[in-house]
Amino acid sequence: MSHVFKDRPRLLARVRRIKGQTEAIERALDGGGDCMDVLQLVASVRGAINGLMAELVEGHVGHHIVEAADDDARRQGADELIQILRTYMK
Asked: What does the alpha-carbon distance between residue 77 and residue 73 come to, in Å, rounded to a whole number?
């Protein structure tokens, strides 16, 4: 997954923002935060995770399917993507 390493600083920044968001949920729950505030925080984290997943999928498709060296590599990239999307959507 060399494309992940190329985008590593940007992806890590996204993950760190998500980490901050999840810590905000923990603080809200620990401090007895308002129900709507906690729900909004959870919704925000879900959106951030979905955005990260979309970016990673886009990179995978571009690198392992569109730019694949041959049909076997393209098929493997597609199979991997299908497998992970099935897991993600459960």
From this structure: 6
Q: Is 70 left (phi over 0), alpha (psi -120 to 50) or beta?
A: beta
For 53, the token pair is: 């997943």
CATH number, residue 84: 1.20.58.1000
Measured N-to-C along each axis, helices 35-60 and 8-30 cross at an angle, to the nearest 10 degrees, of: 160
Please tell me the total count of domains within the chain: 1
Chain position carrying tokens 């992806």:
11
Residue spans of the chain under pLDDT 70: 1-2
Q: Which domain holds residue 15?
A: 2-88
* Report field, pTM of the whole predicted structure over 0.90: no
